[in-house]
User: What shape does this take?
Amino acid sequence: MSLQPAYCYVYPHPAVTTDVVVFTIRGQRLEILMIRRRSEPFRGSWALPGGFVDIDEDLEACALRELAEETGVRGVYLEQLYTFGAPGRDPRERVISVAYYALTRSDRLQMRASSDAAEVAWFPVSALPPLAFDHAHMIGFAHRRLTAKLDYSTIAFQFMPETFTLGELQRVYEALLGEGLDKRNFRKRILALDRVEPTGGLRRNGSHRPARTYRLKDPGRVEIIR
Amino acid sequence: MSLQPAYCYVYPHPAVTTDVVVFTIRGQRLEILMIRRRSEPFRGSWALPGGFVDIDEDLEACALRELAEETGVRGVYLEQLYTFGAPGRDPRERVISVAYYALTRSDRLQMRASSDAAEVAWFPVSALPPLAFDHAHMIGFAHRRLTAKLDYSTIAFQFMPETFTLGELQRVYEALLGEGLDKRNFRKRILALDRVEPTGGLRRNGSHRPARTYRLKDPGRVEIIR
DNA sequence: TCAAAAGTGTTTGCTATACACCCATGA
DNA sequence: TCATGGGTGTATAGCAAACACTTTTGA
Assistant: This one.
C-alpha cells in the first residue's frame, strides 16, 4: 500500500523542517551530535538530527521531538539559530529548515539509534565528516554563535553537570575558546557573576589537593552579562 | 472563476511567509513602517509588510519583494530576526513566518499604497496601533535586537543619509537609546571607530555655527565592534 | 619527598565617564 | 548682542590583564 497525495492547496507550499546542532564537551573537545541517514537523499551520509514539522506542532517542540526520536537525547538547553531556506537546498522539494542549537552535559547523554537513523555519533567540531544538505554551513553558523555568546552570557554553564569544580569549568571554557586562561582571573570573573555557589563538598581526583565543588544557583537559566 | 486546489502532498504542509519590521528615524523618533490590510483575516487592521514565499524564491528575496510591492520601500539594510511558528498564529491555516528587520534612511522613503495594502504609514514605536496576527510580538523582538546591536555594532549608521553631521548622528543614537549622551564622549567614540570621514563641506542650519559634514567610509557595511 | 592540581592578591594599563568653555552664525 | 548648536581636552575611576607562590594530597 502506497500513500496517495491527500493534502491539497491552491498555491504550492514548501515543506518545513527543524535541524538541531547539539554541542557537548567530551575529553576537553567540543563535539557535535550527528546521525547517519538511513534513507534517501544522502543515504549513508552523516547529518544533523532533525525532521519535518507536524502540522500542529510548535517549532521548538518539533526540534526536541526529532532530537529525542533520532538520538535519545533529552533535557537540553535549546535556542533558535537561523532559518535556512535557499531554493535547492533539498533535492526532493522546497524545504525550509529552522535550525536550533543546543548545549548539553556530557554526563547526561542517553544515545540510541532509532528507526530514522542508522547510527548516532559525536564528532569533534574540528574533524567533521562530509555532511548531508547544507548542514556543514549550519554548523559553522552555530559554532560562531556559540563562541560569540560565551563572551556576553552564562551559556557555557549549560555544559556542566550537577556539581563541578572551577578547574573543570575552566577546562570547558578553554576547550570552547581554544586557548589557555589565567587561573586567578578566571576564578575571579566566574565568582563575580554570582551564578555558582560552593556545595561544601570536595572532589578528590588524583594525587593532589582536592577541589571544592560548586553548583549552579539557577540551573537552566542563561543570562546576558555586561 | 475560482481557483481549485492544484498542489497536493502526501503530508500536510504549512504555508511560509516573511514579515519585515522596517525602522526609521523621523523627527527624532524611532518609527516603524506599517500597512493597513485590505483583506481577511484582520481586514482593516494595521500589520507589518510581508507575504507568502514563492516556491522557488529565497527567503530574503521574498522579504524584499513584499516590502517593495506593498510599500515601495527599497534599498534597505535587511537582517533575519527570528522565525515565528506557533500553531494558531494565523486563523486560516498553519503559517510559519520568517521575520526580518530593516533599517532605512528617512530621506530615502518612496512610499506608496498598492493592491495588497490599503494604506501605508509610519508609526512611532511608542505609539503603535492594535496589530494583526502576532506582529506586536515581532516588533518587540525586533526592537530589543536593534537596541542590543547598537552597543556592539555600527548598525545605527544605516539610518544616516549620504552626508550628515555628528550632531545629527548623535540625535539618532539618542532617539534609539532614549537618553541624552555626552557630546564630547560621543564624538570621541564615533571617530575612534574610523568608519566616518569628513566630506570637507559644511552644513548651515540655523543661526549658529555651521557643522562639518561626514560620510560613511564603507556604506552598507555593518561591523561588529569590541 | 615528589608530582600535580588547588587555591589565593596586587600591580598596572586601558577604557569609559564626568565635566566647561569658546566659536561661528543668523536673527 | 544674543541665542543657538558646533567644536574641543583632561582628570578620574573602574575594569581587565599580567603575574608567582603556598597548600594538600596520593603515589
Remarks:
- Residues 182, 184-185, 188-189, 204, 206-210 of chain B lie near DNA strand C (CB under 10 Å from a C1').
- The mean pLDDT of chain B is 93.
- Chain B touches chain A at residues 3-16, 52-53, 55-59, 80, 82-83, 85-87, 94, 96, 98 (CB under 8 Å).
